[in-house]
Design a protein that fits this description.
- By secondary structure, the protein is α/β, with parallel strands linked by helices.
- The protein is built from 4 helices and 4 strands.
- Helix 3 links the parallel strand 2 and strand 3.
Length: about 110
Amino acid sequence: MLNATGNSRAAAAAAVAPVLAGDDPPTAVLACSDVLALGVLDAAGPHRHLSVTGFDDVAEAAAAGLTTVRQPAEEKGRLAAALLLEPPADPAGGRLLLPTDLVVRTSTGPVPRS
């Protein structure tokens, strides 16, 4: 399932609330940012049976126990700036891969038994 929303915690909470309240709610949500994942946690509430993962590893993620994917943001910014200042001769000729780390916290776990 793909559910598009604005890029705010409140927008994510509003978008996912009807999905979580439905007849067949998901057991896991992978959000494209920690901000959106935190909104999912807000909507799910403290007694949720839902694994939630974000992306970015912002400070709020650690405080909330959010499992996330950490990326090297500073290195990513430096490389983006370098590419803007000196574009490659063949823009379609390559790609850069940066390392990421899965940071497992309390927002993920096994699917609860029915």
